[in-house]
Amino acid sequence: MKRLTLALLAAVCLFVAAVDARASAPGLTLDLEGARSLWVQDEDGEWYAYFPPAPDFVNERFIERWVVEPPSTTGTVPVAWVVDGDTIDVTIWDETRRVRLLLVDTPEVRPTECYGPEASEYVSSLLPEGSEVRLERDVTDTDAFGRLLRYVYLPDGRMLNELLLEGGYATVFDTRDEEQHEQRLLDAQTRARAASAGLWTACETENESEADADAASDESSEDGCDAAYPDVCIPPPPPDLNCADIEHRDIRVLPPDPHELDRDGDGVGCRS
Predict the structure, then answer these.
(1) Among 50, 130, 179, 219, which residue's beta carbon has the most beta carbons within 10 A?
(2) Are both 86 and 188 inside the same structural domain?
């Protein structure tokens, strides 16, 4: 893996047009391969992020430390706008960046879906304009729309992604590639569902479909296939099966999912 010392950083045009002569770099090294952003820490211990190309005024800072990925102690960024329940805009340097909350999905506001406005209002109440949040990256940096994919932390340290799930404002979404907090967020969703919080009781169509599926799954078809998996033949438990035991992939799953093949609750089990 390509590693560059800070002595060579001025030559890395991807990030820095020119490094001020005052910049201090005591023996630190950088791993720039695949990096999309660069973080700096000034002499007061504050962290800042910028995205290439570097703004001119980055050279005006007395830089104490450079890192490609921010540590857990990275400083905060201000909220510019709450777009909806799972998307916010933040300001990094003077640039507005759109952030999509990792692993959670709230109902839409436009067009209006059940509990979409409530989710958006909840986030707005926690993050008024100008409030500071900390962003944490997992495996995937951006989505297909260029939005930053992040866990978002409030000033008091609570994770917004988790709060949305615990309050029943969101469901777990697309955990295939992310690693750090998958189980934590799945547990939050389980607690909300058990408590019938938020959308788990407010959205009648959701409840009706689950009730229908529960009734259907109580009766396996004559050929021994569980009705929770209508497109393929998977026998009901016992024994309990997991994806390694099943040859099918991308299976349509209806509640209550007795084999728990759909861990993220998005209606598709054993993704390929």
Answers:
(1) 50
(2) yes
The parent domain of residue 178 ranges over 77-194
Q: What three-state secondary structure class fits 252?
A: strand
The model's pTM? 0.55
Task: Please indicate, yes or no, whether residues 138 and 186 belong to a single structural domain of this protein.
Answer: yes
Question: What are 62-114's pLDDT values in tens digits?
Answer: 344 444 444 444 568 999 999 999 999 999 877 899 999 999 999 999 889 99
Last residue of a domain, one of 15, 36, 67: 67
Q: Give CA 18 to chain center in angstroms.
A: 34
Q: In this structure, which amino acid lies at residue 231? A: D
Q: What is the DSSP letter of 4?
A: E
Is there a domain that residue 36 lies in? Answer: yes
- How many domains does the structure of the chain reveal? 3
- The SS3 call for residue 10 is helix
Measured distance CA(11)–CA(17) in Å, rounded: 8
Per-residue H/E/C for 169-194? CCEECCCCCCCCCHHHHHHHHHHHHH
Q: Is the dihedral of CA 260, 264, 269, 271 positive or negative?
A: negative
Residue 150 main-chain phi, psi, to 5 deg: -145, 155
- Confidence band (pLDDT; 50, 70, 90) for 228? confident
Q: Which of 49, 67, 85 delimits the end of a domain?
A: 67
